[in-house]
Each structure stands twice: as structure tokens, then as C-alpha cells.
Amino acid sequence: MKILLCEDDSNIAIIARLALEQVGGHQVTWVTDGEQALAKGTAENFDLILIDDMMPKMSGGDVCAAYKKSGRATGPVIFLSANPQDARVAEFSPVAIGYIAKPFDPMRLCAQIESIYQARSSAGGKKAV
Amino acid sequence: MNAIRSRLLLLSALCLSLIVGLGFVGFTSFRQYIGLQAHLAESYELVDVAIALNRKTIDPEEFDEWQKRIAGSPELIQPSFRFEAFKNVFKNPSHENLSFLLKTENEYRKYLAPLISYFEQRVHFFGALLVVASILFTFGVLIYVLQYLFAPLRELSRKMIEFLNNRYTYEFSTPQPTEIGELQATFNTLAQKVLSQIEDLKSLDRAKSEFLSIASHELRTPLTSIKGSLGLLNSGIMGAVTDKAGQLMSIALDETDRLIRLINEILDLAKIEAKQFPLNMEWTWAQDFTEKTFQGLRGFCQGTEVMLAVDDCADLDLYVDRDRLQQVLTNLVSNAVKYSPRGETVRVRYIIDDKQAIRVEVTDKGRGIAPEDQEIIFEKFRQAASPQNPLVKGTGLGLAIAKALVEQHGGTIGVHSLPGEGSTFYFTLPKWRQHRERERSVS
């Protein structure tokens, strides 16, 4: 999968990138803030966009809102968040399809993503895994 | 500020003095009228007496009386020419004298007639004015009271009720300088104070919620890096790991997980206490709910050789926040598993209580809890003395969270235990019903 990773904390970004590339074999593009995520996300085609929800300037929710507003088809968004985001996911559905709680287990990250993906295609569920 | 009182007093004084003035004029006119009527009656009496004297038919008693009256006071009959004429008739009741008297009395009556009718009119006029003034006064006071007292009072009370119903629509740029205005201003100030305090509370609430959100973000971000690094290293993806290094990394990972659990639980409890954990209530099939909880604990039970069992509850629906209650049951069952000897079974039972509440019991065959510990285990960061079992490393918050969640559901939580004979943890739920197939919740 081609994944856009938007994460302002470089340590977490390095880990997530390693996990996605080494464990899942995905292709990862990393950006550090919401504005870049907006630009990249609308300019290129990604299979998935992983966004940290709490970032300075533009939050993950703001990016989602901007995606929705732009009207451009983007990859589905999964939030990476330290706080439960059920309400957020519902608010930005169908752009947002779920969230992964931090701290995540790097070895299970790909499985979690897969599970949210499956849940969306089967029942349209937005449960955290 | 006594504006309404002084206005009311002034209005009353004005109207009362008008009424008294009119009454006085009317009353003096009435007295005059009565006096004139008496003169008229006297004139007729004089003529009657004179005619009786002339005809010599007068009663002797009456004759004596009149004689005394004439002798007593010459001013008895006014004016004096009438008195003279009557005296003459009295001395000599000749036709001549009588007809003179008749003539003077006749003239006198002619003089009285317009005066009487004048005073009669005056009495009627002022009497009518008095009645009108009294009615006007009554209505004036009534209207004033209604207009300046009752209307604003009613308005104020309506606004107060609106305020009670959380709608503040009451603002006076400048309240009237009256007693009512004073009340309005006081209420206004009061409302503003309440509103500003509500605003303070809201911002305090916001600050608390912001703090919780930031705290969880700030605590979880470094933990994400630690857990992530350790996990990747330990997996061997980043290069071979020696056994000893692997052991150390496993310890670090376990302790990181414990720290994460602790932080999660502290934040959960803080949120529940800050009432920022709204319950999402729905009818939930007890059997499905219990099975899902057991499924979630499958990994936890691996290697403990402790079985999980649930008594038949296929006929029961619970009205709960599924996720939150699952947290409670998971906590109780995992505690029970932790303390259970190998090969034993942890049993969940749903019992319909006498008090119409449902009672959920989790029973283990563990070593039981000493009576003195039974009270403290539901408190924060309190645990009964741990056995030498590595699984028992808990945060000391699980039961406090379970208690808070059960209480948020309107239930109670507790434990029955005898040392050496195992424990039964239970909680009650106030709302349940017979299971309805159609509404079975599927998650």
C-alpha cells in the first residue's frame, strides 16, 4: 500500500515508518504537518493516510475537514491519537475510517490498519482496534 | 426609592381632598335646602293656624303653645313683617288681618321657591360629582396598582421562571426608578452573577478537559516512542538480539505496558470524575455481551489454566454503555483469573435481585480477601497484599474505575469473600428486560 504518514513527532514517525515499511512492506511518504498533509494528500493518490490528530497549526481533524471541503478524492484517513476519537471519526466520515490509539504496538500496527480497512469494506464500522 | 409608594400616596391625597371638598359643598347645600324646606313648612303651618284662629276652631292647647312662642321670641318668624302680621292675626283674627297674612306668606313662599330649587340642584349636582369622583378614584388607584405594580411583577416573575429554565432574556438598560425597578435591577445583577459563575464553571470545565487531553497526549507521546522502539528492537527485524538483551527488552516492554495501563487508568478515572465520560446507553444482549468480554480475555487467560464460564443468560437484555460495562466485567473477571488457582473456573452469573435490579456476580475459588481489605480494595491505588504471582502486578485503579462506572450506571458494586474460600464480586444494574430477539445488538 502507498501510505501518507503525517506525524509531527519525528521519533514516532521513524518508528511508524519502520513498522509500516519493515513489517508490512508498505511504501511510506512522511510529512511533518497538516499543511503538507493537505497538499500531498490532494496532489497524489494514497491508499491510506495516517494522521496524528494533535499537531500544532493544523490538527488531523482540520486536515480531514479540508479534504472534505476540497472535494478531491483522497485516500481514507486513519487517526493516530492519544485520545479516543470515535466522535471525531464519526464527524469526518466517510473520509475518516477509524483511529489507532497511541501508544501503538509497532508489530501490530499493520494488522490494526488491515482490520480497520476490512471493517470499513465489510460493515462500514469505525471501531478502534 | 419609594416612588410607587409616594405616587400612590399623592394620588390618594389628591382624590381624597377632592372628595372631601365636594362632600363639604354638597353637605352645606343640603343643610341650606333642609332649612328652607323647614321655613316653607312653617309658613304653611302659620297659615293653617291663622285660618283656625279666624274660624275659631283652634285647639286650646295649640293656642297656648303659639301664645308662648310669640311671647318668647319675636325672632321666631323671620322677617319681622311676617311676625307682625301673624301677631296681628293672633290678637285679632279678623278677615282683614288674615288676608294680609295670607298675602305676605304668599309672597314669602314665592321668594323661597327659587332658593329651594337652587339648593336642590346644588345637592344633586355635587352629589353626582361626589359619586363620579369616588368611582374615578377607585378606578384610578386600581389601574395604577395594576399598571405599575402587578404588570411589572408578573413580567419579572415570568422572566425569573425563564431564567430558571436556562433562558436569560432579561436585561434592563435603565430600570425604572421605582421599587419594582429596584427589584428588577437586583434580579438583573443576580442573574448576571449566576451567568458569570456558570461561565466560570464552564471555562473551568474546559480547562480541566483540556488539561486531561494535553496530559494524555504529553504522556502518551514519549511512551509511543519507547514502546515502538522496544517493540521493533525486540522483534528482531532491526537485527539479531541476544537472549540476554531480549530478556531485558521484554522487561522494559512489560514495564512500559504497565506504565501505559496505569496512565490510561488514571486518565479514565480522572475523566469519569470530571464527568467527561458520557455513557452511550443501549439495550445489550447479556449473553453476547458476556461472550465478547470472555473473548477479549482469551489472551489474558492463556497459560493460567483458568476456565471462564457463564450461567445461562440468553433471556436477558441489559441497558448499559456496552464498552464501559465491558471494562467493568473485564476488570472483575481478570482479577478473578489472577487470583484463581490453576484448573479452577471463574463463573459469571446474572441474578434478578429482589429489588428488581439485576445483579452480576463474578465468583472465583481464590484465596479470598481478608475482611479488613474488603473495604479498601475499591479505593484508588489500594490493593490487598499481593501474593507472589507476577500476574498480580496491577495499577490499583481497576476496581476504583469499575466502581465509578457502575455508579455512573446507577448501580452498586461490592464483594463477598471468606479468606480461603474464594470471593464473589458483584455489581447491580437498575435497568434490564426479557431478551428481545429482534433488537439483539450486534457489534
Summarize the structure.
The complex is a heterodimer of chains A (129) and B (443). Chain A contains 5 helices and 5 strands. Chain A has helices spanning 10-23, 34-43, 60-70, 86-91, 109-123; strands at 2-6, 27-31, 48-52, 77-81, 96-101.
Topology:
The complex is a heterodimer of chains A (129) and B (443).
Chain A: E1 2-6, H1 10-23, E2 27-31, H2 34-43, E3 48-52, H3 60-70, E4 77-81, H4 86-91, E5 96-101, H5 109-123
Parallel strand pairs in A: 1-2, 1-3, 3-4, 4-5
Chain B: H1 3-54, H2 60-72, H3 80-91, H4 95-164, H5 179-235, H6 243-273, E1 281-285, H7 286-296, H8 298-301, E2 307-310, E3 316-321, H9 322-339, E4 345-352, E5 358-364, H10 371-376, H11 398-408, E6 413-417, E7 423-429, E8 432-434
Parallel strand pairs in B: 2-4
Antiparallel strand pairs in B: 1-3, 3-8, 4-5, 5-7, 6-7
Helix pairs in contact in B: 1-4, 3-4, 4-5, 5-6, 6-11, 7-9, 9-11
Structural key phrases:
heterodimer, A: 129 residues, alpha/beta, Rossmann fold, five-stranded parallel β-sheet, 5 strands, disordered C terminus, B: 443 residues, alpha+beta, five-stranded mixed β-sheet, three-stranded antiparallel β-sheet, 11 helices, 8 strands, rod-shaped
